[in-house]
Q: What sequence folds into this?
């Protein structure tokens, strides 16, 4: 997968994609935690913290060596297998501090027009690659 270009991203840019919470994603998530998923129950809301929706919205992955510093998530509804979301990623801030590049973006998941989850993520861009 290609990387998206940090230099081209501007504060205020908005990226959109769709995301379906598939059975495979839910089962892989539970498996990685050594848990068993019980059919019919909501999926863990934290499953929306995976990178795939960002990558799809940005049109590529973050640069090699990018460090995920902080993420704040707010949940407003349960999520289930086969839920379909409109995902909107907005660039909130982008700055350089002490010779390091930072990117802050907000990711909103909408189901049938209603906000289900809001994330704010801070990344130290390509730091470990330098």
A:
């Amino acid at each position: 997968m290609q990387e998206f270009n940090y230099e081209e991203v501007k504060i205020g840019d908005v990226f959109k994609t769709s995301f379906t919470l598939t059975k495979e994603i839910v089962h892989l998530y539970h498996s990685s935690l050594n848990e068993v998923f019980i059919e019919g129950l909501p999926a863990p809301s934290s499953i929306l913290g995976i990178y795939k929706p960002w990558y799809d919205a940005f049109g590529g992955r973050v640069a090699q060596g990018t460090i995920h510093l902080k993420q704040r998530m707010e949940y407003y509804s349960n999520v289930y297998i086969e839920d379909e979301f409109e995902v909107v990623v907005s660039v909130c801030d982008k700055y350089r501090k002490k010779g390091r590049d930072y990117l802050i973006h907000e990711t909103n998941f909408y189901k049938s027009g209603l906000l289900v989850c809001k994330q704010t993520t801070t990344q130290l861009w390509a730091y470990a690659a330098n």
